[in-house]
Design goal:
Layout (H helix, E strand, L loop, with lengths): L6 H20 L24 H6 L12 H12 L6 H16 L2 H16 L2 H16 L2 H9 L12
Helix pairs in contact: 1-4, 1-5, 1-6
Length: 161
């Protein structure tokens, strides 16, 4: 019998997959040939962003000045790709950006560490975890909430005839 994953593990998988989906918005691993090296970049003030960039990145406004220059540049690259996104992609980006910016710095660091551990897993294990999370998300929200709370489903006993 296959043991059910504990709720904490599913929450971890969910956080990892949130990071998987949000990773392109914060990726620093695709260098721009014309980009200034991160150590030579200066942090930008919010007011230096174009109105379009400010609109796309509005979830980061309060924390913008505290972001490292490399992260600011990654976000600006994502904002510049905004026009090429479909409305669905734009909505997903906004939602993920808002969720990410609502996390405390400690939660963001924990998410980065979980993401790194996830990336170190073999591809088969990553695929298995993604599938497990997909099945979890597709559940009826009420049933999922009961499971997250640790409630056991009520069972009706069958009586033989």
């Amino acid at each position: 019998m296959h043991a059910r994953l504990p709720n904490r593990w599913l929450a971890l998988c969910g956080a990892l997959l949130l990071m998987v989906g949000a990773a392109p918005a914060w990726a620093d691993d695709v260098p721009d040939a014309n980009a200034v090296p991160v150590q030579n970049q200066a942090a930008l003030d919010w007011e230096q962003l174009s109105p379009a960039q400010q609109q796309v990145l509005k979830a980061f406004r309060e924390r913008w000045g505290g972001l490292p220059p490399g992260r600011q540049q990654a976000l600006l690259r994502a904002a510049d790709r905004w026009e090429a996104m479909t409305p669905e992609q734009q909505a997903r980006f906004q939602e993920r950006a808002e969720r990410w910016s609502s996390l405390s710095p400690e939660q963001q660091q924990q998410a980065r560490e979980r993401w790194q551990r996830f990336r170190e897993l073999p591809p088969e294990e990553q695929a298995r975890l993604r599938e497990e999370y997909r099945r979890y998300i597709e559940r009826d929200p009420e049933r999922r909430e009961r499971r997250d709370r640790g409630d056991r489903p009520e069972r009706t006993e069958r009586r033989g005839h």
